[in-house]
From TrEMBL:
Record-linked InterPro entries: MULE_transposase_dom
Domain MULE transposase: 326-424
Signal peptide: none
Organism of derivation: Rotaria sordida
Pfam families in the cross-refs: MULE (PF10551)
Protein name: MULE transposase domain-containing protein
Gene3D superfamilies: 2.20.25.240
Low complexity bias spans: 41-70
Region of interest: Disordered: 34-70
Superkingdom per UniProt: Eukaryota
Length: 495
């Protein structure tokens, strides 16, 4: 490729060449001569007789050789053509420049002129409402529009200037700018109003990618609150609110694929875990969404080494006090550090006729003395609010500490054992005494154990008689004699 300089042109053609250079026109001579010569032959045969200058120029192209002198001869021929063009027009404007480029190509098809004369387009039509956005990994804000994304460039006097996210891509370098108002919202929920956009994108939009980025951003924002942990329910709620089509739904990631990243975003806003039992409780964990108190009992005992925390709202506590039936149980797997168990109380709501959870209590142990402190505080708490905590019956497991507490504090209350816990206790004792595999394989032992499990299904007047028959069967049935030591241990639990 070779550029034509002013030293190779006639004085008459200098103004023309200067004007072309100011328009950033580049004149090139390619090296592939053979294909161009064949093209010249076809052009000459299809066209009628042209002017002498064109014919002479074509003849010089046909006689072109790879030597330097032939290239200079071809350039001089081009200068003659430029001279004729300059004489035909005194005002060489943009239109003349384009005509000159066409003429130069016609004179010598191996000379290609490229010009950058197009101006960037400007769009100023308004967009109703704030622009769509999504948060980046570094907590920045990117705007979305027509399948393109924009990141902040700089703040100006009248607003903010944004550039295309592909502007820093070395292979694309999209030079388009978006202008918006200043942020009308806050950092967590920004609002930018569209003003104008200048330039044209040199790449295709990617709406599917933006949908995924916005979906992840919105999901992280929903779960960043300390009181809203990530869950599949939150995931499904956001999917429903976005109202996506079938093809767009297929582009979304699954909950399991982004679960860990959601938890990382959630934990960034969580307070630091306490190291001692007497820790302060943040406001967001001690109030409801209606800004009502959610911790009704916070009691420290045993020289400030133990603590009881009861989470319940005023409405839930009222339901618990008015209910005639309560259902209680403790769990250990989900209990936070520094505590031993989470004790949950459910009450039968008279109005809705449903069983509702009404209290979540953190305890340091499962001793009878701890249960007594807890329910004494609950009875006192009910009196201060004008309620009476005196349920007709309660149902719980067979923990001795809770049973003794109810007998001492509320002797008129009837206590029922949970049938599930009853069966669970029998299975645990079978495994403890080595009877589990025999229970699965020996039909005689299987029937004897099933009779034990069915005792609670009888009326109270027949339970004792049924128990005595089962106890007698272990000695009279010779097929059960080999299990007598283990069966005696199981029956001892009932005595």
């Amino acid at each position: 490729m070779k550029n034509i300089s002013n030293n190779q042109v006639t004085p008459a053609s200098k103004p023309v060449m200067k004007n072309i250079q100011t328009r950033s026109a580049t004149v090139c001579i390619t090296k592939e001569r053979k294909s161009k010569i064949s093209q010249l032959n076809s052009n000459r045969s299809s066209s009628s007789s042209s002017d002498d200058s064109l014919s002479s120029t074509s003849s010089s192209d046909l006689s072109y050789t790879s030597s330097r002198s032939s290239s200079e001869e071809s350039a001089n021929t081009l200068n003659v053509s430029f001279k004729k063009l300059s004489l035909s027009s005194n005002n060489f404007n943009t239109t003349t420049t384009k005509s000159t480029s066409i003429a130069a190509t016609a004179i010598n098809p191996e000379i290609i002129i490229s010009s950058k004369s197009s101006e960037p387009s400007t769009i100023t039509h308004p967009i109703m409402g704030p622009m769509s956005y999504f948060k980046t990994k570094r907590d920045g804000t990117n705007l979305c529009m027509n399948g393109f994304s924009y990141q902040k460039c700089k703040e100006m006097k009248n607003g903010i200037k944004w550039w295309c996210c592909k502007s820093r891509n070395k292979s694309v370098k999209c030079r388009i700018f978006l202008y918006t108002s200043f942020n009308q919202g806050d950092d967590d929920h920004p609002q930018y109003d569209f003003k104008k956009i200048v330039g044209d994108h040199n790449h295709q939009p990617d709406k599917d990618k933006l949908i995924i980025q916005k979906f992840k951003s919105d999901l992280k924002q929903m779960t960043q609150s300390p009181t809203v942990p990530p869950s599949i329910a939150t995931f499904n709620e956001l999917v429903a609110n976005m109202k996506l089509g079938t093809s767009e739904m297929a582009q979304l990631p699954s909950y399991n694929s982004i679960r860990m990243s959601l938890w990382r975003a959630h934990n960034r806003n969580m307070p630091q875990l306490p190291t001692g039992i007497n820790f302060p409780i943040p406001v967001e964990f001690s109030t409801t969404t209606d800004d009502e108190p959610f911790i009704l009992l916070d009691h420290s005992y045993a020289k400030q080494t133990k603590r009881i925390l009861m989470f319940s709202s005023e409405k839930q506590f009222k339901v618990m006090c008015e209910s005639s039936s309560l259902y209680m149980d403790g769990t250990f797997a989900i209990t936070p550090r520094l505590f031993k168990q989470t004790y949950i109380i459910q009450a039968h709501d008279i109005q809705s006729k449903n069983v509702l959870p009404v209290a979540w209590i953190l305890l340091n142990d499962k001793k009878g003395s701890t249960y007594k402190i807890l329910f004494k505080k609950i009875i006192l708490l009910a009196k201060t609010r004008g309620y009476e905590f005196s349920p007709s019956n309660i149902m719980s497991d067979y923990e001795s500490g809770i049973i003794s507490t109810w007998k001492e504090l509320l002797p008129q209350t009837k206590h029922d054992g949970c049938f599930f816990h009853y069966l669970q206790k029998i299975v645990k004792r079978m495994k403890k005494y080595g009877l589990w595999m025999h229970y699965l394989n020996d039909s005689n032992l299987y029937i004897w154990i099933k009779k034990m499990m069915a005792i609670p299904m009888l009326s109270a007047t027949k339970m004792l008689e049924a128990f005595q028959l089962i106890e007698k069967a272990k000695t009279t049935d010779r097929k059960l004699k080999r299990f007598i030591p283990q069966l005696n241990k199981m029956l001892f639990y009932y005595k």
